[in-house]
Amino acid sequence: CHxxxxxxxxxxxxxxxxxxxxxxxxQTESRRIGRHIEKVEIIPANxxxxxxxxxxxxxxxxxxxxxxxxxxxxxxxxxxxMSRQAxxxxx
Length: 91
Known about the structure:
This is Chemokine interleukin-8-like domain-containing protein. The chain is α+β, with helices and mostly antiparallel strands. The chain has one domain: CATH 2.40.50.40. The protein contains 1 helix and 4 strands. The chain has one helix at residues 72-87, and strands at residues 3-6, 37-43, 53-58, 64-67. The protein has a 4-stranded mixed β-sheet with strand order 1-2-3-4, with helices on one face. A hairpin with a 5-residue loop joins strand 3 and strand 4. The longest helix has 16 residues, at 72-87. The protein is globular. The two termini are 18 Å apart.
């Protein structure tokens, strides 16, 4: 099961809620690791980070990895996951 979550956080009290007021991704992974990804979180650019961030959680280890948004394979994985999510009926 692949999960894509798009989070928008435009709140003034983010610091009080424990949210970081900076980019979460310092380094990104560009190697193909698509088969090892369990879920993906997309954090759009905002006032705290001018770059969109794509954060993947790996299946076996639960390790969190930042993905290179410009890597062609990352774009394909995101596209596929979002199209699958769009096909799931809301109940």
